[in-house]
Amino acid sequence: MKSLKYLMVFSVPLTVYISFTSTGWITFLTLIYVFGIVPLADFFLKVDAVNFSKEQEEIEKNNKLYSLILYLTLPTQIFFLVWFLFVIQDTSDTIDLIGRISAMGIMCGVVGVNVGHELGHRKNRLEQLLGEILLLTSLETHFLPYHNAGHHFNVATPEDAATAKKNELLYVFWVRSQIMSYIEAWKIENRRLKTSDRTWFHYQNRMIIYTAAHIILLCSIYFFFGFIVMLYFLAAATIGILLLETVNYIEHYGLLREKNKFGRYERVKHTHSWNSNHVIGKLVLFNLSRHSDHHYNGSKHYQILKSLPESPQMPTGYPGMMLLSLIPPIWFKLMNKKLQEI
């Protein structure tokens, strides 16, 4: 069955399991797998730009197995997060400590944030709640209000905090995107409540609920595991956040929508996101790399996202592009040239 290939996401928790139960360099297996083995595989394997036919798309759209795989990531993420708190408490060796924190952090990004993003776009409130819980594991719940009502509306414009400008350093973007998207999330919620004559300080303000949830989670970790373990969790969550922001950086780098004669931006097209059809990264990230179609129709489920010829293509998969973005001279030389070719 076509849906079962997305079970590959659980290869990440498998490497985390090995990290938690091993010592020495093997605790870095998750890092080696996601940013070593996966990019190499994507580089050598043939890209997959095949789309479903209209008939197949309708069948796969209604296949519940695709959603079930997403749901299974929630108990997996929670289990590994709780296990992390116990195992890191008993970790004294510095190498093991760094390796296990990196493993949990990468899982926060790949599973917590990425699947939280997919479920956060669903119309069903229960699925949205599952997405919120997943994002909570990386302390990134503000992502949903801004992403859905801010980023998707302003993408590929200077008004979008999550669109990287041409020649903008990744390390500057990390700070700008994270701070500005947090501020904008509050503004979006305040405006939403104001339209129904409610004050910002209302129990239906999601940012208040999310902030309370963050505080409760951190206080619970502090109470049951102590201050040092809480710091280790913060380090893992930070890795997850940085992975998210790095993905944001590569997805729209340098792309801009034009304004019409009335001063309004053109509608979002498939040309306003970088695309990738590299096989392994595509499966592990639930087709996130078919990002152009996702922005064209944000509510479309991951399994039926299309690859279209007009979408600008990345030279390699997401993990490989993330590595390249860490080295600004190489990134600018490669991507600025591709921008000129569009």
Describe this structure in words.
The protein has 342 residues and is mainly α. 63% of the residues lie in helices and 0% in strands. The chain is built from 14 helices and no strands. The model has no long low-confidence stretch (mean pLDDT 95).
Outline of the structure:
With 342 residues, the protein is mainly α.
Lay out the secondary structure.
Blueprint (H helix, E strand, L loop, with lengths): L10 H10 L8 H16 L9 H8 L2 H26 L4 H27 L4 H12 L6 H12 L15 H25 L11 H20 L1 H26 L26 H6 L6 H6 L21 H8 L2 H14 L1
Question: What fraction of the residues are assigned to beta strands by DSSP?
Answer: under 5%
Encode the helix/strand succession as letters.
Answer: HHHHHHHHHHHHHH
Mean pLDDT: 95
How far is the first residue's CA from the last residue's CA? Answer: 37 Å
What is the overall silhouette? globular
Enumerate how many helices there are, as a single number: 14
Outline the low-pLDDT stretches: none
How is the main sheet built?
none
Sheet/helix structural class: mainly alpha
